[in-house]
């Protein structure tokens, strides 16, 4: 008998096309699945669909054909321990797929057919009385501002280039204020923070080698310094040496608090200003690997 699965598709994801979805539906059927197609119509749909599937189905296999923002939406609708999640990369950056070393749509389909799944830990923030989960990272400060200030028109015209333009604007309108990071006995004053639940960041760049999706907790990077420090970090990101920079204080934590009112991004989408509390949530969902 075919195994049911639910394919959540975001038609606005960076590399979506109707032809690709047709190919994916066919590929799933060829691998013994009976896929049900769930196209989203708004940014609220991924979480709504996931919540409904967790309520109405027993251990549903929820497959996201989209990017990290759509996966984040689904993550925020899941009931703990109630589903299995698969990923087919159709976004722009596809950082989660890169973390799992998924090399193509066909590779993703083969992994679904193979069916190996492992429980993952995710992060959860509380800010302004709201809770929100992330799977990859929470960025506070520079990267939060870059994501917040990306212009839609530039994103449509330039894709990833729009983030470079936004970064240049953020560097120009420099905010020199600092934030306080508290994790247990540790207190760090710094300019910005990246709380990493996964090792990759911004594409195929390994920012946080000690961050592990499959273990509770984060690798936290507290960044000090001005514009030049960030330019150095951007180079360090390219060759995997950012954590060794003298501008970065690095530690591992299960929970932390971040003060101030700087912009916060989760998994590449702006969510709110700080302050915020961050904690790890073990075993939220089983992820197809
Ligand atoms: N039907 C829809 N209309 C508008 N926005 C949507 C819709 N469905 C989902 N979204 C939102 O679109 C945003 C971007 O989607 P997604 O992350 O899949 O693509 P991407 O930005 O190209 O990829 P990546 O995040 O990997 O770079 C997400 O925040 C998601 O919640």
From TrEMBL:
<dbReference type="InterPro" id="IPR050187">
    <property type="entry name" value="Lipid_Phosphate_FormReg"/>
</dbReference>
<dbReference type="InterPro" id="IPR001206">
    <property type="entry name" value="Diacylglycerol_kinase_cat_dom"/>
</dbReference>
<dbReference type="GO" id="GO:0016301">
    <property type="term" value="F:kinase activity"/>
</dbReference>
<dbReference type="Pfam" id="PF19279">
    <property type="entry name" value="YegS_C"/>
</dbReference>
<keyword id="KW-0067">ATP-binding</keyword>
<keyword id="KW-0547">Nucleotide-binding</keyword>
<keyword id="KW-0443">Lipid metabolism</keyword>
<keyword id="KW-0594">Phospholipid biosynthesis</keyword>
<dbReference type="InterPro" id="IPR005218">
    <property type="entry name" value="Diacylglycerol/lipid_kinase"/>
</dbReference>
<keyword id="KW-1208">Phospholipid metabolism</keyword>
<dbReference type="InterPro" id="IPR045540">
    <property type="entry name" value="YegS/DAGK_C"/>
</dbReference>
<protein>
    <submittedName>
        <fullName>YegS/Rv2252/BmrU family lipid kinase</fullName>
    </submittedName>
</protein>
<dbReference type="Pfam" id="PF00781">
    <property type="entry name" value="DAGK_cat"/>
</dbReference>
<keyword id="KW-0444">Lipid biosynthesis</keyword>
<keyword id="KW-0479">Metal-binding</keyword>
<keyword id="KW-0418">Kinase</keyword>
<keyword id="KW-0808">Transferase</keyword>
<feature type="domain" description="DAGKc">
    <location>
        <begin position="1"/>
        <end position="129"/>
    </location>
</feature>
<keyword id="KW-0460">Magnesium</keyword>
